[in-house]
Amino acid sequence: MEVFLLGAVILLAGGFAFINGFHDVSNSIATSIRTRALTPTVAVLLAALFNFVGALMSVALARLFTGDSIDLPAGQGGLGILISALLAACLWGLFTWYRGMPSSSTHALIGALIGAGGAATILGSESIAGPGGVLFPEIVLPLLVSPVVAFLLAYLAVFPATWFLRHSSPRKVNNGNRMAQAVLAGSFAFSHGLQDGQRTTAVILLALAGSGVYAGNVVPVWVQLFAAVLLAGGSLLGGWRITHTLAHRLVRIDPLHGMTAQGVSAVMLFVGAMVLHMPLSSTHTMTSAIVGAGANHRYATVRKSQVRSVLLVWITTAPVTSVLAAVLYLAISPLL
Description:
Blueprint: H1 2-34, H2 40-57, H3 60-69, H4 76-98, H5 105-122, H6 135-164, H7 170-210, H8 221-235, H9 240-249, H10 255-274, H11 282-295, H12 304-332
């Protein structure tokens, strides 16, 4: 039975990576397509390629999730928690994609893990926990703070960008920023691979460790390849519903402000993954940067009603996936 549950976790983790890819690829390509820096086909291919490369470049965040931050119960109980959490996160990802709403796959997964762990506790089983209370400061806190930081940095970054280009003609400014956007689209996709590719790697490592198959510090190559291939494969689908929301429904984006939003969010994700070893939501970072750059305009560009709708989705993501994962765990608990 445990082998079957382990296989189910790996398959669901692959599904989570695939959904993450087509759900979050919009973050990489939306502004570039909106300003015509890249054609949709080229943008998607570029994003898929760099997501694949990024997912293979580091395992620091995967070790964070599987080390001190999350302690999964061994055996069938722990695998049941992962199955419930992955199902809940996948269902939420599909629902928000269908609604065209950008939402964080990481928030969904963390909320679902907490909910499934809580349900396990109710039934008298071991729960999921972080030794030393590091789950909040190392994982939850960066995810909550990053949207505010991205908004402020993007808003402020418009000032030096505008000043630096003040003597250039509008045509030259737009062409130069479109070229920069093409580069930054790949950079953001690479950073997204660094961040989100390791979520799937971490889940599989937790499952392998809980089953007694994995007990070392070296991440198996097949786990990284599995996550990278499915993340890139999902990216190839484009996620056009969310792309339309980010590109057209939040703010009016021109090449300068699009370049600023992409640059800020790409740097934040890269620094978070490679320097600070902190998980950041690519969706929250890019969306906040787009709104922040758009807010720094001589005329109003932010569509507040749409921003409020997105914020509502963000606020409800973790609670909804937590409740859904708890219900799913209670449903499958007789089989564990």
